[in-house]
TrEMBL record:
InterPro entries: DjlA_N, TerB-like. Residues 73-190 form the Co-chaperone DjlA N-terminal domain. Residues 20-48 are annotated as: Disordered. It comes from the Bacteria. Residues 29-47 have a biased composition (Gly residues). This is Co-chaperone DjlA N-terminal domain-containing protein.
Amino acid sequence: MAEAEVARVAMWDRIKDQATRGLQQAQGVRGGSGGHGPSGARSGGGSRAELVSALKSQLTTLKTELKSGAFRDASMAMCALVAAADGRVDPAERQHVESLILTNDVLQNFPADQLRQRFNKHVDQLSAGFVMGKAAVLQEVVKVAKKPTEARAVIQTGIVVAGADGFIEPAEEQIIREACAALGLSAAEFGI
């Protein structure tokens, strides 16, 4: 069992290095901010789109390992946090994120009605009161903290959903950073 975990950690290190190299190549620089815009946002459309694509592919390679109920629940919580990152979720955004969830290759390990029910429950919590809802929903994310592969996959799922349009909003980056902190992971590991 310990050998399998060491192999997974080594694989995540390779994935992280590949994603970081891809991001750096897309930005055309090493270091630096790599982007411009309000509040120094680092989110360049192309670089984020490439990062999201790389993360999506890497998640797919782990599909057979990501079948636990804890991963399902934490992923739905992460998707809800991303959808509500700016403090609100309009019906069109809710439906858009729900469609991303239902067509995600890895999340197809789970029945669509389970995913939809959990996602909507978390969005409702966040809509009722963002600060209190966020604390409750982050507790669902934290349930995978002791499973490094699942914890990283939850963050990657959040990034894939946030970057589905080729751009990750600053509020989405912030909520992903908060989820990383709650899981004891470095946001820099994911290029955020």
